[in-house]
Amino acid sequence: MPEAPRRQSRIQKKNRETILTAALQEFAAQGYAGTTIDRIAETAGLSKPNVLYYFPSKEAIHRELLEALLDMWLAPLREIRADGDPLDQILAYARRKLEMSRDYPRESRLFANEVLQGAPRLSPILGGALRELVEDKAALIETWAEQGRIARLDARHLLFSIWALTQHYADFEVQVRAVLGQGHDPYAEAEPFLDQLYRRLLAP
Questions:
Q1: 3-state secondary structure string, the chain?
Q2: What domains are defined for the chain?
Q3: For the whole model, what pTM was predicted?
């Protein structure tokens, strides 16, 4: 009979979270190639052997961060419901994606860096679970369009545009803030713009 997995102590859970938080900071700032276990350990305030006690390699840390991030990133898309009002559902999705860019900018940049490198550690997920979810929601959106409830459009490219327009504010935040100047809240100003944009695009 296989041995039951050991439960982690409170200190072990805390150390794992400390390591993952430090790694997120390093990966988002330096990219995968520029990040080392030594840098993660220094940022976490732990020794290198201590970090390696919890994670066998840099790749293992990176993979855990990406898998958790992708699950969080896909949650708003999963929430688009067939029994909801089409316009409300799509606008709520765009709004939630913008909020996630505001609240999780480092996570967004981590994901962007991975994709820009050819997604070597995410390709199976992108071509599997992500693609299946997009296909499912795209079919729902196109059904709404066929019913005349929203404009006819390519639902996949609609989703791509929402990703691009919302995640831009996190991935290029320095540029956005530099262009807008002091006294501007990019996310607060973007929300009504995106709402107006998609209302007009989706009007039947």
A1: CCCCCCCCCHHHHHHHHHHHHHHHHHHHHHHHHHCCHHHHHHHHCCCHHHHHHHCCCHHHHHHHHHHHHHHHHHHHHHCCCCCCCHHHHHHHHHHHHHHHHHHCHHHHHHHHHHHHCCCCCCHHHHHHHHHHHHHHHHHHHHHHHHCCCCCCCCHHHHHHHHHHHHHHHHHCHHHHHHHHCCCCCHHHHHHHHHHHHHHHHHCC
A2: 1-56 (1.10.10.60), 63-202 (1.10.357.10)
A3: 0.81
